[in-house]
Amino acid sequence: MNEDARLEERLLAALARREYSRTELARKARGWGYPEEGIEAVLDRLVRQGSVDDGRVARDHVETRLRGRPRGRMALRAELRRRGVRAEAIDAALEAVGSEREEEAAREVTRRKLRSLRGREPELVRRRLAGALQRRGFPAELIRRILEEETT
Asked: Which 8-state DSSP code applies to residue 71?
């Protein structure tokens, strides 16, 4: 078995465990000591086969993060950039989310946080809610609107 075939086998084994972006797979392969030319050739082949798809990685990541511990678009964009996903794939995945889904996610975070802040001073509640929403990457205008509705 030649070196490219071994690399492809290792990358496919990694992909069987979870989705990786092209950039993440290239980092893995470099860490394993494979030459750059071989890495690019194997990754090109995997992309053509559909085994590696940054668009699919971005869509799956966004959907997963909106369900578990919800995040806003800014946080999702930053997470996907760190994973090395192409900007076009990120934009397409975030465009598909829509502002309604982002608002639903922000309201879910708000509801959860409000339960833990029951009986606290209104100003403390506002500060903590704002901080929780900011840390999760929700836009300032949405945070402002939710705070007005939920804490008045």
From this structure: -
Tell me the C-alpha to C-alpha distance, in Å, between residue 67 and each of 43, 64, 73, 103, 124.
30, 5, 13, 13, 27
**For residue 55, what are its two tokens?**
């668009």
AA letter at 64: T
Q: Give residue 118's domain range.
A: 55-150
Instruction: Supply the pTM of this predicted model.
Output: 0.84
Q: Are residues 35 and 63 in the same domain?
A: no
Residue 24 to residue 74: CA distance in whole angstroms? 21
Q: Summarize pLDDT for 78-127 with one digit per residue, the tens.
A: 999 999 999 999 999 999 888 888 999 999 999 999 999 988 999 999 99
Domain boundary among 13, 32, 52: 52
